[in-house]
Write a structure and sequence with these properties.
Length: about 170
């Protein structure tokens, strides 16, 4: 398998893994790649190059992705086609799924009243927050995106009303 085919195959595999863990990866406003990039400390273009261009990142980035998605490092490195020489610094495998001791070290889910100014404003935001299969950061991003879109629509309506009044 050539490098381009390997990279695209890995990109497809990673996209499925991300979707299975609740990251939105498809669509024009999918925030999953940006969220994953923030969580592992890389630029969002790194994740974009992996998913769109089939680029294979450095082993350290692959290990960080594996740890964040709770995928065994060896599985991630195999999927990316990383050679044994590049694996040298992979270290011990973390647990495939977080155990109760890992939960104490993770960010606890914040209270939405504290996270959002004024708390959850409507039933749509409450429904988004109730999707516990998504990480709280992804739910936060979805709610912020809906608020941004609502502000944009309101601004457009205000401009339309103002221009209609001027014409009359």
């Amino acid at each position: 398998m050539d490098a381009t085919t390997q990279g695209q195959s890995f990109a497809d595999w990673l996209r499925l893994q991300m979707a299975a863990k609740g990251y939105a990866v498809d669509g024009p406003r999918a925030g999953g790649p940006s969220l994953l990039a923030r969580q592992i400390g890389v630029h969002r273009a790194t994740i974009s190059r992996i998913l769109k261009d089939g680029a294979i990142p450095k082993a350290a980035t692959l290990r960080a992705i594996a740890d964040q998605l709770h995928i065994p490092r060896s599985v991630m490195l195999d999927a990316a086609g990383v050679s044994d020489e590049e694996r040298a610094g992979s270290g011990p495998e973390p647990p495939a799924e977080p155990d109760s001791s890992a939960d104490a070290n993770e960010d606890p889910e914040p209270d939405p009243a504290v996270l959002f100014d004024g708390g959850l404003r409507n039933d749509s935001e409450k429904a988004i927050w109730a999707i516990t299969a998504l990480p709280w950061q992804a739910r936060q991003a979805a709610i912020e995106a809906t608020r941004t879109e609502a502000r944009r629509i309101l601004a457009e309506r205000t401009v339309d009303k103002t221009s209609t009044r001027r014409l009359a």
